[in-house]
Amino acid sequence: MVERSPWLQWLAHAVLLLGVAVVALPVYITFVASTHTTEAIIHAPMPMLPGSHLVENYLAALQGSGNHYGSNAAVGRMMGVSLVMALVIALGKIAISLLSAFAIVYFRFPFRMAFFWAIFVTLMLPVEVRIMPTYKVVSDLGMLNSYAGLTVPLIASATATFLFRQFFLTVPEELTEASRMDGASPMRFFWDVLLPLSATSVAALFVIQFIYGWNQYLWPLLVTTEEAMYPVVIGIKRMISGGEAQTEWSLIMATAMLAMLPPALVVLLMQRWFVKGLVDSEK
């Protein structure tokens, strides 16, 4: 039996509280700044308690009614673009990875493992490495400033394919034989057997890929030139005025707070499934 030391418990809690403070303090400062006017923010010392302009600033950010010299795109529109982008990327990655892993594990065709290793090798080729030829293809296809241009180049995932392949290899062969004896087609076996067994893995990957899609910056920066197609991460950068023009930091901070809400909600709502998908003993 391991004896618990009170001092070690106090130390562990102190470290946890310190970590929470390090993470929460910037978020708190951002929230406080979003409730004040820009003049109150830029004059030191900045107030450390919430102000009286919360509703005014958030409505101005959502409607794009600021007077700054940067982007005036409505945050509501930008968040809609980010939401579509994150959902398409997450669901597209999961769907393509499930089908590719299913084909690699359960079908016998020439060069099957060669195709798998070709997919696996793409882990060494992130978006930054292939960004110029990818941009050239997207531009030639007329997909700039479109949802297709924002999402299609990012929906393939070698990591998810590898994870689903490893999980499918642990599925008992008896399930496959029983489905075959019952006359189930390959897609029926996939839909009725493999997909329900993969539910926790799908949920965990959805959370990761949703946040990945929501936080995309470099690729949208290249393929979007119209305010109507800005994701919210790009919108925050474009709202910052250059030169001597005044930057409305209160609206930028309100936009940053709004941009944090959807990923946080996804993590909170799917936390149970996310943790289960990562630590499930059957994986």
Which topology of the largest domain does CATH recognise? Answer: MetI-like fold
CATH architecture of the largest domain: Orthogonal Bundle
Q: How much of the sequence is in beta strands?
A: under 5%
Q: Can you count the helices?
A: 15
Write down the secondary-structure element order. HHHHHHHHHHHHHHH
Helix content: 55-70%
Structure description:
The protein is mainly alpha-helical and 283 residues long. The chain has two domains: 6-57, no CATH class; 75-279, MetI-like fold (Orthogonal Bundle). It is built from 15 helices and no strands. It has helices at residues 6-33, 38-42, 54-63, 75-106, 112-121, 131-140, 147-151, 158-169, 173-181, 186-197, 199-214, 218-223, 232-239, 249-269, 271-279. It is globular and about 75 Å long. The two termini are 29 Å apart. 28% of the residues are buried.
